Amino acid sequence: ELHQDVSGTGNGIHDGQVSLETTQSGSSYTLTDALHGNTAIYDSNNSPQSNPRQNARLFTKTSNSWGNGSNSNRESAGVDAAFGLAKTWDYYKNTFNRSGIRNDGRGAPAYVHVDNNLLNAFYDDSCFCMSFGDGSSQNANTPLTSLDVAGHEMSHGVTAATANLNYSGESGGLNEATSDIFGTMVEFYAANANDPGDYYIGEKLNMSSGYFRRMDNPAADGSSLGCWNSSAGSVDVHYSSGIGNHFFYLASEGTGAKTIGGRSHNGTTCNNDTFAGIGKDKAAAVWYRALSAYMTSTTNYSGARTATLQAAADLYGTNSQERYLVSKAWAAVSVGT
Ligand code: ASN
Ligand code: ZN
Ligand code: CA
C-alpha cells in the first residue's frame, strides 16, 4: 500500500490549533511525520514507564484532524508531542544544520499517556524514544507535553549523541542545563500567542509553584543552585543545572529585571556585577558549539566555562565583546578561575 505524506490539523492541550505532517495509507492516517525523520507518536495506553511500548498503539484514524484541545481526548497530548518534536527538529535543522538527534535524519518515536499519574517525561537513549506522562493531582492532571518539555527531552538525545555528559555530578547538571537551554530555545523558536517564550521551564503545566524551574533565578524554587559552590557535584542534577541555566540567562539577557513572555525575570547575579547580554541566539550558538566540539562525558562547570570561551572565540573572535560577556556571565554565577 502507498504511504504518503499529507498535511493535517491538530488541537493540542498546550499548543492549540496547529498544522501537522501525517501519513496517509489508503483511507487511514497516522501521526507519523515523514518531513521530520518519520517521527511517530504513540498512545502508550498507560504502559509502565519501564516499557512504554507494552500496550502502545500508533495514533491512527480515518480523518486527518486530531485532538480537541482537551485532556479527555487522548489525541490532544499526541498533537502537542507531534508539534513540539517537529519544532525541535526544525530548530536544530535550521539553526545548526543538525538532522535529528543523531544527525542521521531519523526521528525518535514518542509515547504519550505513559504510566498512571506520572508527573514526568523522559528520553531513553537505549530505545531511542521519549515518554510523556499525564501529570498527577499535583498539577491538575495536566500532560507534560508543553514545547519546553518536548524540546528538553529531545535535547537529551542530542547531548547523548555529542558530549554524552555523564548524568551525575557536575556533568549531570550540565546535561540537564543543556536540555533546559535548548527546550527554552525551542519555545522561543515556536513562539505563538499560546506560548510566547520565556526562561521558565514548565510554566504551562499548572504546578502550584507556577513552574518546574526558572533559569533567571534558579534558587527561587528553594532547591536549585543559582551560584556554583562546592556542593554542586553532590546535589540532584535538576538542581545543579541551575548554575548553567543561570549562566545562559545572564549571557543572553544580561543583568537586571525584565518581563519576558509575560513573566518576571529577575536577572540578579552572585557577584553584584552588571553587564549586557549577547542575545539568546548567540548564547545558544556558543553553547551548541561548546557541547558538540569541546565538552566530554566528564566536563564539569570549570570545563564548561573553558569550552564556551573557546566556542565564543571560534564564532566571534578571541577579542570579541561576545567572548568577554560570556566570561562575565560565568563570573556572575561564581564559576571562574
Ligand atoms: N524529567 C526528567 C528529565 O528529563 C526525567 C529525568 O530525571 N531524567 O530530566
Ligand atoms: Zn532532563
Ligand atoms: Ca517555558
TrEMBL record:
Highest rank taxon of the organism: Bacteria
Annotated ranges, domain Peptidase M4: 8-159
Chain ranges of the Peptidase M4 C-terminal domain: 163-335
Family, as annotated: Belongs to the peptidase M4 family.
Protein name: Zinc metalloprotease
Provenance organism: Kitasatospora terrestris
Interval of the full protein contained in this chain: 210 to 546 of 713
